[in-house]
Amino acid sequence: TPDQYKQAIYAHSQRSVVSSSFPGRNYAALADWLIRPNAGAPSQEADSWRQPEHGLIVLHNLDDRKLGRTRIFTSEETAELTVPRPQQGKGHLVFVRGFLCPAWVAELGSRYRIDPEFFCRHLDFFDVSAHHSCFNTPSLLNTTNNIIHVHVSTILTDVGYSTTNLYDDSVSHRGLIREQMSKYKRSLQKAASCGDSIVRDYSILSDRYSVIEQRISICVAENGDGWVGLLCMDNGRDLDKSLVGPWNQDTGPQTNSNMRITSLPVIQHHPKMTWRKIGEVDTSLRSSINPNLSTQAGLPQSISTLALEYPSLLSALDLSKRAQSDPLHALVPVFAHAAFSEVAFLNLVDELMDKLTEPLPLDNFQRETFESLQHFEIILERHAAHIRHSIRSIRILSERSPFVSSTNPPLGNPASAESKDSAASQGYQQQLSSFSAIGTLQDHEDLLERCQRLLSRVHSAKTSEMNRAMILESRRAIEQSERTKKLTLAATYFIPLTFTASLFGMNFGVLGQGDLPVWWYIVVAVPFTVLTHLFYSWDVETLRLRYRRLLQTVKGH
């Protein structure tokens, strides 16, 4: 039951290192949140400006013999989740749209026997200090075989852009953004409402563009004779209606009275997208969630409709038959959407790199450029790690797929010869599409290669900037040595003249302090200055060598 699921997590969190080989300290924050009353419930002030309804859970029955395959539940309908188990060899897809409340975590976890580690890692922003004090994540490679994290990027830009904004504004605000993101993640546990959108990372790329990163956590588990895929999406309500973060605050270089932050769509491609209605959400589903949903999105995202359009999307992409019994093909549109969003991000970084690496004089070092390159390096390394994880997840799912590997049966049902024959009869064009198992893997491998090329480009640009800094510093040192040389030459005249003046003690008749005429100073100072220059120009080592040669010559004669 849901209560037993909560109690099991809480009991594990209380295990200490002295009483168990499996201490549960990393579950402490999750357990406290699950048993805390009213956790995830919106406050009265928050309810006044958030959407009145939100389709939190979207359940798709992939068995085409079932009527009413799609069911939608709001945050308050946990008791209504009374759906039958999947048919033999078939599957269910359960989308969670936004921040989960404890009741739904317990309901989904108990109903589908989800490993609590899945929720612990999905909600890893809970009590960050306590969570990372054990340094348990990232964990061993095989601990993530059934926990898939797919990352989706959304590019934000401004309308009414003015060229008066300076590029170094974005550099100066990055430190402030990091502080605000830390504060935002700490406030999620207490201030976020069920269904709110979550942002994992927010980065300012330039004075005009920024990017938010969200996650889709996926767990594929056996359920009776079939299987279930649980997809916890960070995307829920519109960002303008969710917990406030630095992307919708009046801070940063984009802030201007004539500007409005908006999001760019994720452009996808399929060979049949022009001839078929691919990705159009059923109006009945849209109205059942919120009749004014299309007009209320202040900061719309392409991923917002993914859960609602999924059955029609699978059908239009010729994936319905395979998706019924194969989790990999059922999840292909999710991987493809993330890949296309990564394409937009990498293209943007590539364009910004062109501007940062424009040909400049060797001594023209710009500190803002170097800091931006460091910022890009950190972001690209994080994205490369995400892509590697997705590639590994696709390969693990392909090992279970009867349509990709003939050695392993699908989860919940042995592979039959008929299914293999039907898979082999599919057209070659479908196999090469970005919405196919093979195509998705190839696309992710290409994205990883592109990301690594961009990283190499960033490293080269950093090296060039460091060389510029060294050249500039060398030129400054040369200029300093030239000024020192001039000062030294001036001192060679000033020192003997000063010494001569101090030697006479200014006892000249013209000054009324002595009987010596002034010309005596000139007679003494000129020879003394000449002797000083001769001593300065003498090279002791050269004189010593000449003296030795002279002695050898004399002895030879």
TrEMBL record:
Where in this protein does the record put region Disordered?
403-423
GO terms of molecular function: metal ion transmembrane transporter activity
Q: Which InterPro entries match?
A: CorA_TM1_TM2, MgTranspt_CorA/ZnTranspt_ZntB
The alphabetical list of record keywords is: Membrane, Transmembrane, Transmembrane helix
Give the record's membrane topology.
Multi-pass membrane protein
Where does the chain cross the membrane? 487-506, 518-538
- GO cellular-component terms in the record? membrane
- Which cellular compartments is it found in? Membrane
Per the record, the major location class is membrane
What is this protein's name?
Answer: Uncharacterized protein
Organism from which the protein derives: Corynascus novoguineensis
Q: Give the taxonomic lineage as stored in the record.
A: Eukaryota, Fungi, Dikarya, Ascomycota, Pezizomycotina
